[in-house]
Amino acid sequence: MPKLRTVMVVAGAALLTRRAMRRRIQASPLWPMPALEEPISGRPRSRALRLLVTACEPVADGVVGLRLEGHDLPRWEPGAHLDLVLPSGLVRQYSLCGDPEDTSSYTVATRLVVDGRGGSREVHEQVREGMELEVRGPRNRFPLVEAESYVFVVGGIGITPVLPMLRALPDGVRWRLLYCGRSRASMPFLEEVEKFGADRVTVVEGLPDLDGLLADVPEQAAVYCCGPEGLMAAVQERFPRVHLERFAPRASTGGAFEVELRRSGRTLTVPADSTVLAAVRAELPDTAYSCEQGFCGTCQQRVLEGEVDHRDELLTDAERGDSMLICVSRARGDRLVLDL
């Protein structure tokens, strides 16, 4: 009996210790450093959903479409995208290209990028019907604005955010689409797009003659572009106020600068050709991150001092006042201080 009592006392003490440690760690993920007044880093930006993959099928050469089913899904508007959490834990962003009125499923498509960072390859090689995937969102950084007329310029997989826009345009609104691709077989949803009519849709295989095809764009027209970086840069050069959708960060430019990690007492140098995230993880390897493109918000950190050159596609103006995504954003000056 005394032996049993001793075991129970030890077990009870261990349970209390685990609970106390759990509360302390929850209060500060970087324990024993002090907790932030309002934790930011890695905070989920929207409710995560577990959805069933009910279709995974080719929609063009090198492109697969996924249908993800659930119940009472959050509504979305044309231009919105999802964060898709892949089986490996990678987070990637894909434009919604289905019906915004359908609250039972989401549809996305992704092109295989052989020399990419692994996300598209994982979708193509590992995602199958019957799997469950976690998604976050939807979020919309590419909304359809009200305008007298529209011009859409898309390249390949760039059709995905634009297709719901075309379906949603009111009758009588003037619009036209320039759809470019390496070949017709590589262009997703081409058959549906061409049903809008040759008077509105121009399909080009190979490099388009932008000067010729976009020579008569009305000044008041809203211009939208999504596709390869080269295409978007060329359109933006001609139409500086173009609405762009990109899932890659702006090129890292600018000189080196210092980053002080205030709570850990370390000062780092960020080279001109590297990122704050890379420098921070060299010292604090457990720092959370995922997409490395400024979309998912996992690496968001609080900024105590310094001016930030924000290059993300996620934070609101209010959030940019005191935080940054360290995977893409940089210092405008020669020094930043982070609450790390």
Can you put this structure into words, describing what you see?
By secondary structure, the protein is α/β, with parallel strands linked by helices. Helix content is 22%, strand content 29%. It has eight helices and 18 strands. It has helices spanning 2-27, 119-126, 159-168, 190-194, 210-213, 229-238, 276-283, 317-320; strands at 48-60, 63-69, 81-85, 91-95, 105-111, 132-139, 149-155, 174-181, 201-205, 222-226, 243-245, 257-261, 266-270, 300-305, 308-309, 323-325, 330-331, 335-338. The strands form four sheets. The chain has a six-stranded antiparallel β-sheet with strand order 4-3-6-1-2-5, with helices on one face. Strands 9-8-7-10-11 form a five-stranded parallel β-sheet, with helices on both faces. Strand 7 (149-155), helix 3 and strand 8 (174-181) form a beta-alpha-beta unit. The chain is globular, with a radius of gyration of 24 Å. It starts with a helix and ends with a strand.
List the helices and strands and how they pair.
Elements: H1 2-27, E1 48-60, E2 63-69, E3 81-85, E4 91-95, E5 105-111, H2 119-126, E6 132-139, E7 149-155, H3 159-168, E8 174-181, H4 190-194, E9 201-205, H5 210-213, E10 222-226, H6 229-238, E11 243-245, E12 257-261, E13 266-270, H7 276-283, E14 300-305, E15 308-309, H8 317-320, E16 323-325, E17 330-331, E18 335-338
| Helix and strand element order | HEEEEEHEEHEHEHEHEEEHEEHEEE
Strand proportion: 25-35%
**What structural category do the secondary elements indicate?**
alpha/beta
- Average of per-residue pLDDT values: 86
Number of strands: 18
Apparent shape: globular
Give the low-confidence spans: 21-44
